[in-house]
Amino acid sequence: MCPLGLVPKIFLFNESGLTPEQRSQRQLNRGRVPEITRYLIENRDDYVFSAITASIDGDAEFIPNPGDDLTGTLRVQMKTSKIIINDGQHRRAAIEAALEKAPELADETIAVVLFFDRGLERCQQMFADLNRYAVRPSRSLSLLFDHRDELAVVSKLLLTRLPSIAELVEFERTSLSPRSKALFTLSAFYTATEALLVDFELESPDERDNAAAGFWSAVAKQMPHWDDVRCGAMTSGALRDTYINSHSVALHALGRVGNSLLKLTKKKTLEDPLPRLTSIDWRRSADIWDGRAVIAGRMQKTHQSVTLTANVIKSHLGLPLSADEQSLEDAFRRHAHAA
């Protein structure tokens, strides 16, 4: 275990100017450091860091304790030795930055695994081996297990209150297989709920949650195809092949529409305008989605496609477009007319 205050002093990471084949590590991505630093500072009482792995380039000696060969003291000649990081350079940089803002973290400790340096080739192989089987969890699974992200907590709470929607949500994977019963991923529902609640505040979290639950419940009532999948009358794959309201771009767009409704009505229930959703032609082949949610026959999920899809829904419900939405709509129409 090494005190955080010693990490920047002991562990070296300075390979600037070296070619890729001369380095024993990937280049430091400084864009990742502020996020890790913020995580450490904001969760100083319960943060979790994996061990730093480093190699000792220099003289070192392990002196066993009397009667116990497995424990003892590692003596390193620090004047002439270097301890080079094999895995953990971003943690090191974040720790250094965090200590500048919160010096009291210096007495915290982090686990360290040390190897003797056997040359550049061995260090490069260690990096390859350490990262060989590292698999980043899906965004949906990360959200499922995340109890720090308030919106993730809200999204999961909403799904416990909306079992008819929860049955259609894939909680672990970020992509859906053709045979999956799910229509949406937890990640997609999270993003749509974020769009629903952005810049909208009620008097209490309970009112916020009730407003969000009321909106999604009202939307689900206008989507009979969702019920068809839930009861087994239609497969999710067949629905997704035919209709856009079973894709994340439409769910996200509905979240944007709901945000406008919440701000305009200030109501906790949104039953009045939403029945008009049933009269929208949700087929992928419908002309209204061409160039918006569907481009060259394929579903698209970009900021522009979400906004243009939301514009259609808003117009159908008689809701005004924002200045940015109107500007994008005008540009879309000019392009379509020119084509």
From TrEMBL:
Listed name of the protein: DNA sulfur modification protein DndB
What species does this protein belong to?
Rhizobium altiplani
